Amino acid sequence: MALSWPAAATAAICGSCSPPPLPRRRFSRAAAYFVPVCPTGHPGPLFCAASAYPAHPFSPEVAEAVESLYSEFREVDNLVAHNTTRVLKAFQNARVGSHHFGGCTGYGHDDGGGRGALDNVFAEIVGAESAMVRSQFFSGTHAITCALFALLRPGDELLAVAGAPYDTLEEVIGIRNSSSSGSLKNFGITYREVPLAEDGGLNWDALALAVGPQTKCAFIQRSCGYSWRRSLSIIEIQRAIKMIKVQNPDCMVMVDNCYGEFVETCEPPMVGADLIAGSLIKNPGGTIAPCGGYVAGKKIWVEAAAARLSAPGLGVDCGSTPGDVMRAFFQGLFLSPQMVGEAIKGGLLIAEVMASKGYKVQPLPRDPHHDTVQAVQLGSQERLISFCEAVQKNCPIGSFVKPVAGLTAGYASEVIFADGTFIDGSTSELSCDGPLREPFTVFCQQYPHNGFTSIAEQDLCLAGRAPMKPRSSIHPAS
Questions:
Q1: What are the CA-CA distances from residue 47 to residues 12, 36, 59, 275 (Å)?
Q2: Cis preceding linkage at 60, omega within 30
Q3: Following DSSP, what letter does each residue of 321-349 receive, concatenated?
Q4: Alpha carbon distance 465, 356 (integer Å)
Q5: Alpha-carbon span 91 to 84, nearest angstrom
Q6: CA nearest to 421, candidates 327, 284, 258, 291
Q7: Which of these, 137, 164, 171, 331, is most buried using a 10 Å CB contact count?
Q8: Inter-residue contact 408 to 415 (CB < 8 Å)
Q9: Which of the 8 DSSP states describes residue 32?
Q10: Are 206 and 196 in contact (CB under 8 A)?
Q11: From CA 120, how far away is CA 190, in angstroms rounded?
């Protein structure tokens, strides 16, 4: 009996059946999605798919969510194209060549121009006068701390305009454990914060009256951190900067840019920020940079931050960086827009799937993302731990490890991390974390959408253990 084309194709790849001759005809699109099964019923393995484009591996609910997000994913692709164009132009304008990957040793005085080229590329990308991209920054918190100490002097006031700062900055400022740690408070710098509005956004009425003559620096945290609030858009940051400068033109504006790079087509220096800082094992490292951080903004303040990283008088043209690290910085920065785009898609997908299960999510499904963080309120310690365990189990590195909550330097509460990543602590790879405190929220920094399958299929065993009624109000009106 003659076999149909799909049957003939599947028979041809069965390891135990004689392959019949295949008809000479163009492979149809429809045939790309059948599941290959031996037509004779033989249980033997199939060595390969009959098509280079097999059916998706997603569970039905994830497949439905992916399909429903098609238009949102296309918008993200457009964002990636715009940002990639900007990055490419910056590389070309700086005339980046392979000789910039050589690195240096010792004092780092003879680095072949790589350090300066990288700084110039980064400065152009973010629209700043100057930038300092260095492996010597331990973390984003370290870079932000150098920036704050560059801007502030005894008797000055620091004003946080977006509510409480991220946990790791509390000891830097002196909000917590400030007795003798060398915090801003120890140096006679006062601190105030503008509480958030009821909707979780900036409190514009309060901000309009918050800046005084003693306010030397206004601090804006772009991302939500460990707070249940909206992350800030560039338009909101621009409005806040204008409002601050009207009250005190001499007040410097510092933006914690962590998780916000390449999420929009503009960066804070383009709308008036005096200084920004962030980490290279987040967005701008493109999952490749092995360490480091950056500060960027007005040249005078970048140089002041450099003096805090090293020592007054040394400037920015020193500090050794191995060649493999320098190359990774360039390559990671170039790839960053694409990686951030994948993270945004993953966040959209996580919001769609988890909201359909009845969990509160921030941002809401289909809402624009202004950073790469997707928060999910799980409501109990058990669910938070289970979620992180499921993420860790599906990571490429350390999938056999069971994450355990514990005290971590810089954090007030016990925190649980799932980070089976190639770069230790990287939040530009498959990872999530959350403090063990009410309302037990997990913060998912990055989910490449095509790697979400196994996690979403389990739905982290949470819906099965503790069913929740769907929150129809979470979904936007169609």
A1: 10, 10, 23, 56
A2: no
A3: -BHHHHHHHHHHHHHHHHHHHHHHHHHHH
A4: 16
A5: 11
A6: 291
A7: 137
A8: yes
A9: G
A10: no
A11: 34
For the record, the structure tokens of 173 come out as: 């400022």
Tokens representing residue 68 in the block: 């429903």
Identify which of 371, 278, 268, 275 has the alpha carbon closest to the alpha carbon of residue 333. Answer: 278
Same fold, 80-334 and 353-474: no
Look at the chain and count its residues. Answer: 478
User: What pLDDT, on a 0 to 100 scale, did the predictor assign at position 447?
Assistant: 61
DSSP 8-class letter at 271: G
- Contact partners, residue 192, CB within 8 Å, separation at least 6: 157, 158, 159, 160, 210
- What's the CATH number for 353-474? 3.90.1150.60
The residue among 390, 389, 386, 368 whose CA lies nearest residue 378 is: 386
| Structure token pair of residue 148 | 């704050």
Print pLDDT tens along the chain (478 aa): 444 444 444 344 444 444 444 444 444 444 444 444 454 455 555 455 566 777 777 778 788 888 999 999 999 999 999 999 999 999 999 999 999 999 889 998 888 899 999 999 999 999 999 999 999 999 999 999 999 999 999 999 999 999 999 989 999 999 987 666 799 999 999 999 999 999 999 999 999 999 999 999 999 999 998 889 999 999 999 999 999 999 999 999 999 999 999 999 999 999 999 999 999 999 999 999 999 999 999 999 999 999 999 999 998 888 999 889 999 999 999 999 999 999 999 899 999 989 999 999 999 999 999 999 999 999 999 999 999 998 898 888 999 999 999 887 777 789 999 988 999 988 888 889 999 999 999 999 866 544 554 454 454 544 435 445 544 434 433 3
Rounded to two decimals, the pTM is 0.85
Which contacts qualify for 375-379: CB closer than 8 Å, 24 or more apart?
Answer: 375/224, 375/228, 375/441, 375/442, 375/443, 375/444, 376/350, 376/351, 376/441, 376/442, 376/444, 377/228, 377/439, 377/440, 377/441, 378/434, 378/439, 378/440, 378/441, 378/442, 378/462, 379/439, 379/440, 379/466
Domain assignments of the chain as residue spans, ordered by start:
1-55, 80-334, 353-474
How many angstroms separate the Cα of 77 from the Cα of each of 83, 343, 368? 10, 12, 14
- Give the span between the Cα atoms of 79 and 263, in whole angstroms: 8
CATH 3.90.550.10 for domain 80-334: no
The string of DSSP letters for 385-443 reads HHHHHHHHHTSSSSTT-----B--TT-SS-EEEE---SSTT-SSSSEEEEESSTT-EEE
Q: Which two tokens stand for residue 406?
A: 């514990």
> Which amino acid would we find at residue 50?
A
Which residue type is seen at 115? R
CA dist., res. 178 & res. 165, Å (int): 15
